[in-house]
Amino acid sequence: MPKPIVVIALGGNAMIQGNQRGTIEEQVKNITETAQQILQVIPNWRIVITHGNGPQVGNIMLQMEAGSHPPYNRPILPMDVCGAMTQGQIGYLFQNSLRNLVIKESSQGRLEIRKKVKIITIITQVVVSKDDPAFKNPTKPVGPFYTLEQANLIKKEHPEFTMIEDAGRGYRRVVPSPDPIKIYEREQINTLLLNGFIIIASGGGGIPIVKNEDETISGVEAVVDKDLAGERLAGDVNADAFAILTDTDKVYLNYKTPKQKGIDQMSVAELEQYLKDGAFGKKLKGSMGPKLKAAIRFIKAGGKKVVITKPEFAAAALEGKAGTTIIP
Fold first, then answer.
1. pLDDT of residue 37
2. Please, how many CA atoms are within 13 Å of residue 178, restricted to the half-sphere of its CB?
3. Any catalytic annotation for residue 205?
């Protein structure tokens, strides 16, 4: 009988933590620590890994902006191309970190599956609707902060950009965040799963594409929420479990208040009631909100469980010994 499938969704803290510059040394260290947890999951699960890319794509946009002025005058690349670049970058680092850990553990007699561990990164596209209302209301901030003067200059050079003032910290570009419909490479991913591969896919929420009338596809200037894309990926591979790894050990009621209380397990019905009651605190929309929405979607589509926890508790959470577990 084949092992069950888990989709492991990694937040940005699995690669670059809040107090770090994002040097390659820092990223490799963080990724290796996360890969050590994934190593513990390998014996019992077939694994698909997905990840965020916010810091990495932000760095690429900064570099392109710096190089777009004299004397270099290089063109600024569109968001879909930037997303593809980060998928390759992060996938490369994860592949090597996980493979090196497998080799090390096997050579020391602690792992007996070295020859069976095959890892691959898929440049993954996510189909969205060109009629999604998000395209008429861009809300997702991307890239660096600018002064008003800088923002006006960028708007003059790129009239198609939407710039907004962001929480008193400066001006940023915003792009649409459409809902994911399906993973375009789902058949290839499923074939690789059947052949025993650990797959890294749909990084940064996937590269958003739309289908044209002649059945061709085109990338669009947008960012798909990584948690909702992760849920779509989990559904498209018929995953049994969806593990959302983030910067908190579990989901909390009344978060960051004197009444804060961690949740070990809850049903979808209980989760929906908590959301209706506003029981998760004021910052739900930008942090935990998309994760809980993705969890509800996954369970209602037939998934068996969702776990939410920190990367270092991933293996324990899948065994029900850590984090928050959400069940039907």
1. 92
2. 22
3. no
Closest alpha carbon to 132 in 174, 180, 80, 186: 180
User: For all residues of the chain together, what is the average pLDDT?
Assistant: 92
Instruction: Tell me whether residue 104 is one of the annotated catalytic residues.
Output: no
Whether 212 is catalytic is no
Could you say which of 3.40.1160.10, 3.90.1300.10, 3.40.50.300, 1.20.1300.10 is the CATH number of the domain covering 5-125+196-327? Answer: 3.40.1160.10
CA distance 48 to 210: 24
Catalytic one among 11, 59, 206, 291?
291
Which of these is catalytic: 11, 12, 91, 303? 12
Average pLDDT over residues 129-156: 92
H helices of the chain, where? 24-41, 54-67, 79-107, 148-157, 186-194, 226-236, 268-277, 289-300, 314-318
Q: What's the CA angle centered on 17, arms 146 and 28, to 5 degrees?
A: 115
Known active-site residue 152: no
Q: Which of 52, 226, 235, 303 is catalytic?
A: 226
Mean predicted confidence (pLDDT) in 295-309 = 98
Contacts of 272 (CB under 8 A, 6+ apart): 296
Please give the pLDDT value at position 112.
59
Cα 202 to Cα 52, 116, 153, distances in angstroms: 9, 23, 33
- Residue 94: HSE in the Cβ half-sphere, 13 Å Cα cutoff: 31
Is residue 116 part of the annotated active site? The answer reads: no
Do 232 and 258 contact (CB within 8 A), yes or no?
no
Phi-psi group of 254: left, alpha or beta (phi > 0 → left; psi -120 to 50 → alpha; rest → beta): left
In sequence order, what are the beta bridge partners of 211? 217
